[in-house]
């Protein structure tokens, strides 16, 4: 299959990229990036793009499936408007272009608590994206909803670090849905959803990612 992957430089994205490159079912992997990707592989094409002005006529939009791990934090984004652009605007633009070029399968790294009517801004944005994606008519659509993501990040997130240490101390006392979800496990579920392309809309809950 030909796979399109956006968000390949983040924690989950890096794992998804590595898994896809190693997977014999993936023939080609296109990973559009904002800055040149250092990784090299015979399967990999990593075009440098401006996500504010995506090339609508690029041939690589004609993919069999899309994995989306695009995302930021309020601290990194600096404002609610900037956060919405990265976590909702960019993924939706990618999904629309892929769908227009015939892509039928989409797998999204979303978040626990995602709901368009949530009073929590972060969860509301994630839920709005899920809602918009469902309207695009993908044959197969999967939302992977992790809680606290475990793994080594290039960017420091003190809040996540403190929460992770607390959860590790409490161990089995913490309900499964609130335990740490390893980044590599999230990536593996995203890749399987993309490759399998099971018809319908599917949700992978955080409790399934422990």
Please explain how this structure is put together.
The protein is 37% helix and 16% strand. It is α/β, with parallel strands linked by helices. It has one domain: Rossmann fold (3-Layer(aba) Sandwich). The strands form two sheets. Strands 3-2-1-4-5-6-9 form a seven-stranded parallel sheet, sandwiched between helices. β1 (2-6), α1 and β2 form a beta-alpha-beta unit. α3 (80-100) packs parallel to α4 (121-134). 36% of the residues are buried.
CATH topology: Rossmann fold
Helix/sheet category: alpha/beta
| Spatial strand arrangement across the major sheet | 3-2-1-4-5-6-9
- What proportion of the residues is helical, as a percent range? 25-40%
Compressed to H and E, one letter per element, the order equals EHEEEHHEHEEHEHE
CATH architecture descriptor name: 3-Layer(aba) Sandwich
User: What is the averaged pLDDT score?
Assistant: 91
Radius of gyration: 16 Å
Largest sheet: 7 strands, parallel
- Overall shape: it is globular
Low-confidence stretches: 163-167
Strand content: 15-25%
Distance between the termini: 28 Å
By CATH, the superfamily comes out as NAD(P)-binding Rossmann-like Domain
Count of helical regions: 6
Query: How many strands in all?
Result: 9
Count of separate structural domains: 1
Q: What is the CATH class name?
A: Alpha Beta
């Amino acid at each position: 299959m030909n796979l399109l992957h956006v968000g390949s430089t983040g924690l989950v994205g890096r794992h998804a990229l590595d898994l896809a490159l190693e997977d014999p079912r993936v023939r080609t992997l296109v990973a559009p990036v904002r800055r040149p990707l250092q990784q090299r592989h015979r399967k990999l094409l990593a075009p440098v793009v401006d996500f504010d002005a995506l090339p609508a006529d690029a041939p690589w939009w004609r993919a069999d499936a899309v994995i989306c791990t695009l995302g930021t934090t309020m601290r990194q984004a600096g404002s609610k408007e900037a956060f919405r652009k990265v976590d909702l605007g960019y993924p939706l633009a990618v999904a629309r272009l892929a769908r227009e070029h015939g892509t039928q399968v989409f797998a999204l790294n979303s978040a626990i608590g995602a709901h368009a009517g949530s009073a929590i801004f972060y969860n509301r944005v994630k839920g709005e994206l899920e809602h918009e994606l469902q309207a695009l008519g993908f044959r197969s659509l999967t939302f992977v909803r992790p809680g606290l993501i475990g793994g080594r990040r290039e960017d420091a997130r003190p809040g996540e670090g403190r929460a992770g240490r607390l959860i590790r101390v409490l161990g089995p006392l913490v309900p499964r849905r609130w335990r740490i979800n390893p980044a590599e496990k999230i990536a593996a579920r995203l890749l399987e959803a993309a490759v399998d392309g099971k018809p319908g809309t599917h949700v992978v809950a955080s409790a399934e990612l422990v």
